[in-house]
Design brief:
Blueprint lengths: L3 E6 L6 H10 L3 E6 L10 E4 L19 H11 L4 E4 L1 H8 L6 E3 L7 E9 L15 E8 L3 E3 L2 H9 L3 E5 L10 E5 L5 E4 L17 H11 L1
Parallel strand pairs: 1-2, 1-3, 3-4, 4-11
Antiparallel strand pairs: 5-8, 6-7, 6-9, 9-10, 10-11
């Protein structure tokens, strides 16, 4: 295992260095990859960090969807490579069709930045395999368009296929079913709105987020 993780950077990404440090803390080698790159060969996992890709013009992630690197991300994800999108990265993954549903404006039409308690719903994904079902962790959120929405039929499929990874204990943004993070049916692609990288050091007040990256490491080891 090389432990190489591609940390994809778009114009407007602003959490890439936090992710690099979190990966380093669990023994993985994060490397920044500019969105203009066309290949992700040699990487064992992919992380799309938070921020405001292309200024969130049109819709968050809508322009990033057409960056050169996205073809490589889609191919890698479809080949089973662990792929994590955090906050804006979650939005990018839904725009790219790698995850179902969409993220819309928070129900209160306010930007939210605060810690939130999450319940672990599934342990089948790349970011929850070292966690325990019903375990409560606390991670910060930092978003305006984090309200997850999907059709009723789509929501029922998420439940049926064990794709809901995290739920908010107290739903802060109106997300359907209090969803904070989901996976694809294979469990190797995950999108989550809360920021685990911002809870990965006691100097930041918490290390609850390290479990997410430890699970990622476990899946590629």
């Amino acid at each position: 295992m090389s432990g190489r993780v591609a940390v994809v950077v778009f114009p407007g990404t602003n959490c890439e260095y936090d992710v690099l440090r979190a990966l380093q803390r669990v023994g993985l080698k994060g490397e920044l990859v500019w969105h203009g790159e066309g290949s992700l060969e040699g990487y064992e996992a992919i992380v799309i960090p938070g921020g405001f890709a292309h200024g969130d013009y049109l819709r968050p992630g809508a322009i990033a969807r057409f960056s050169n690197v996205m073809s490589a991300i889609v191919d890698s994800a479809n080949a089973g490579i662990p792929t994590l999108g955090i906050c804006n990265g979650f939005q990018v993954l839904t725009e790219a069709g790698l995850l179902p549903g969409a993220l819309q404006k928070n129900s209160g039409l306010k930007f939210l930045c605060r810690p939130e308690k999450l319940e672990v719903v599934s342990t089948s994904s790349i970011v929850s395999s070292t966690l325990v079902k019903a375990q409560i962790i606390e991670l910060p959120i930092n978003h305006f368009e984090g309200n997850y929405t999907i059709s009723q039929e789509g929501y029922e499929k998420l439940i049926e296929n064990d794709q809901v990874v995290f739920r908010y204990v107290d739903n802060p943004n109106g997300s359907m079913g209090s969803i904070a993070g989901i996976s694809n049916t294979a469990g190797n692609v995950v999108g989550m709105m809360p920021h685990p990288e911002r809870a990965s050091d006691l100097l930041l007040g918490s290390i609850d987020g390290l479990s997410v990256f430890e699970s990622l490491k476990f899946k590629i080891s």
